[in-house]
Design brief:
The complex is a heterodimer. By secondary structure, chain A is mainly α. Chain A has five helices and no strands. In chain B, helix 1 runs antiparallel to helix 2 (26-54), helix 16 (367-381) packs parallel to helix 20 (449-467) and helix 17 packs antiparallel against helix 18 (405-431). The chains are: A mainly alpha, B mainly alpha. The A-B interface holds A 20, 25, 28, 32, 35-36, 39, 42-43, 45-47, 70, 72-73, 76, 79-80, 83, 86-87, 90-91, 94-95, 97-98, 101-102, 111-112, 115-120, 123, 126-127, 130-131 and B 130, 134, 137, 140-141, 144, 148, 151-160, 163-164, 167-168, 170-171, 174-175, 177-179, 181-182, 185, 231, 234-236, 295, 298, 348, 353-355.
């Protein structure tokens, strides 16, 4: 079971890496989400995979009678999912606004490579057109 | 006071909550933020004195027994870093009065910067690896908020680079956490020190260590992962860039120091020799990158990278003296670098631009500003008797002692190139006659005292640090002693539950 999940995680990482390196920021978002899920699976596997036996200590004993899944990684994953969700949401909004300004999400496009200093005339000019809105 | 280690985190959080309600009034939110920052500063100094008395201050949250709960642990290094954070926070808040416009206040500038302070303090104080990850995420979220305030397209494209690379860093971080938990069954850093030594599958443990090194290396802007930093920092408002420049990359350096002195100590050879090479290249490429720039804040951004190289070099040499040097360097650099960014805002106010080609003659019109620049600039370059000289001296001495002569020469050479960059800013912005068209438009514009006061105070701290270096070095040596021999830290965290 562990080996199977490990292969799955590997595949997910490979696919996510491919998407993230594709040079398009929308694909990057998908890659990021996929990789986040792969990592969550990895943490899940780290807590041992077993089924049927619940992690409960019988009333007359002081320790677990047999090896069971560790519950802590699941709590960690829960935190990671919430954080990842917030990150993806922010990233999407940021990309949306970037797209509105640059007209592209392809990282090789010139508008991405050119770093406009904040107080340069061209930056202020663009800023003013944004304030006025599209005419 | 048992709760003391939690206060540096809780206070700015509470201030942030209040500030998010006061966003409409610029004056009132500035007042509340400044008040909160000063109280925070007092509390952190209190924490430092407590730590000086008891060596390590530990707080177990939620009343769970030893390695299971989340603990906050302040040793010498953490306490010192928290105090510096509070100093920078106070300076930046004071400066922001006339730097941040009402629109940015309404977006939540003060609330975000307080949240950021809380997260940075949390990262310095936590004794739990997963908790460190959570603080990193809080830090990221707050910095994202600050990053996209306002709508300059330069800021957005710089922001995309910052956000994407940092998201990748968090993925590396959490992957490493998963692997480490799978191997050891614990995430408490002190407990990890004990358990990591007994792990049989050392290859996987080293893989996790490398993942962490990459994750923190991205945060710290190490070679070859530094490209996002000069792409983003110069697009921010001055107060924000000063806080980022002072604190954020240093959190990465701190985490590297913590991980590679406390957790991954059994197989230090490989990790530390990797760090050695990376540190050397970081120093070199940062300073060369700076030489080609003409925008003041981009020059300074590249210098962050090269200076981070020195700190990591201190960690990589891994001798008590080198670590002490790295700690002195951290303290000195945070103050100096934040100050230089604040000065760049004043230069723009007085001269009208960040671009060195468009300004000049500031020495004639603004003598005080010239003084404000020359102190941190000389400290950064390492002129005696300022703080940077002692920091560089310790690092170079440590590399000579470990017979790394090439690195010692390289450190000295990078210091020389830093002087070149600082002289470039000095001669272009201050000595060269002002370009004709700029002269009438912005000459003799009076500088706001809200902006001058923090710059002058930070410059004063730099001078004082340089003149009274002996107690600072003594403190750093004992902090490095704690790092080299983590028994006291481990006993405080695991052994004695008060």
């Amino acid at each position: 079971m562990e080996a199977l999940i490990a292969c799955l995680i590997g595949l997910m990482f490979a696919a996510a890496l491919y998407l993230m390196l594709s040079g398009n920021l929308v694909k990057f978002v998908f890659g990021f989400t996929l990789m986040g899920n792969a990592v969550n699976l990895l943490i899940f596997t780290a807590g041992r995979l077993s089924h049927i036996h619940p992690p409960l200590i019988p009333p007359d004993q002081t320790s677990l009678p047999r090896a069971v899944s560790n519950a802590l990684p699941q709590a960690l994953i829960l935190t990671a999912i919430v954080i990842g969700f917030a990150m993806v949401t922010f990233l999407l909004v940021l990309l949306l606004r970037t797209y509105a300004h640059t007209g592209t999400l392809d990282v090789d496009e010139v508008s991405f490579l050119n770093e406009v200093a904040e107080d340069s005339p061209e930056s202020i000019a663009v800023d003013q057109t944004i304030e006025r809105g599209p005419s | 006071m048992k709760i003391l280690p939690a206060l540096p985190i809780l206070l700015p959080m509470a201030t942030a909550l209040v500030l998010s309600l006061l966003r409409d009034s610029q004056q009132r939110s500035h007042g509340v933020a400044l008040g909160g920052a000063v109280i925070h500063l007092v509390v952190t100094i209190l924490l430092l004195t407590t730590v000086l008395k008891h060596e390590v201050a530990v707080l177990w949250l939620g009343n769970w027994p030893a390695p299971f709960g989340i603990c906050l642990a302040a040793d010498y290094l953490s306490a010192a870093m928290v105090v510096i954070t509070a100093v920078i926070n106070t300076a930046v808040i004071a400066y922001a009065r006339h730097d941040i416009d009402p629109g940015q206040v309404r977006t939540g500038f003060y609330a975000f910067i307080q949240m950021l302070t809380a997260a940075v303090c949390g990262a310095f104080l936590t004794g739990d690896l997963f908790n460190l990850y959570v603080w990193f995420e809080v830090m990221l979220m707050a910095s994202f908020g600050l990053l996209v305030m306002g709508r300059s397209p330069g800021r957005l494209t710089g922001g995309v680079k910052y956000v994407t690379i940092n998201l990748i860093s968090t993925i590396f971080f959490i992957t490493a956490i998963g692997l480490i938990y799978g191997l050891t069954g614990t995430l408490n850093m002190a407990d990890l020190h004990v358990k990591a030594a007994g792990v049989e599958n050392t290859a996987l443990l080293n893989a996790a260590a490398m993942l962490l090194m990459i994750a923190f290396g991205i945060k710290a802007a190490l070679f070859p992962l530094f490209f996002w930093l000069p792409a983003a920092y110069h697009t921010l408002p001055v107060s924000v860039s000063a806080f980022f420049a002072g604190m954020l990359s240093k959190v990465g350096v701190y985490s590297l120091i913590r991980m590679f002195t406390l957790v991954f100590t059994s197989d230090t050879g490989a990790a530390h020799s990797t760090l050695l090479v990376v540190a050397a290249l970081t120093m070199l490429f940062g300073v060369i990158g700076a030489a080609s720039q003409m925008e003041m804040r981009r020059i300074l951004s590249f210098h962050i990278i090269s200076q981070v190289g020195y700190m990591v070099l201190g960690l990589a040499l891994f001798t008590p003296l080198a670590l002490a040097g790295a700690i002195v360097y951290l303290v000195h650099h945070i103050i100096v670098k934040a100050n230089l960014f604040l000065v760049s805002g004043l230069v723009r106010q007085a001269g009208g631009s960040f671009n060195l080609k468009n300004i000049g003659g500031l020495y004639k019109t603004n003598g005080l500003l010239a003084l404000c620049f020359i102190i941190p600039a000389f400290a950064l370059a390492g002129f005696p008797p300022l703080s940077g000289f002692w920091a560089k001296l310790l690092i170079i001495q440590a590399s000579l002692e470990s017979q790394q002569y090439t690195l010692a020469i390289l450190s000295a050479a990078v210091g020389l190139l830093t002087v070149f960059s600082m002289i470039k800013i000095w001669s272009e912005a201050f000595w060269k006659p002002a370009p004709i068209e700029e002269q009438k438009s912005s000459a003799n514009c009076p500088l706001s005292p809200w902006m001058l006061a923090p710059v002058l105070s930070l410059a004063l701290v730099t001078v004082l640090l340089g003149l009274c270096m002996e107690p600072v070095i003594r403190f750093s040596v004992s902090a490095a002693g704690q790092l080299m021999d983590p028994q006291i830290y481990i006993e405080a965290v695991l052994g004695g539950r008060p």
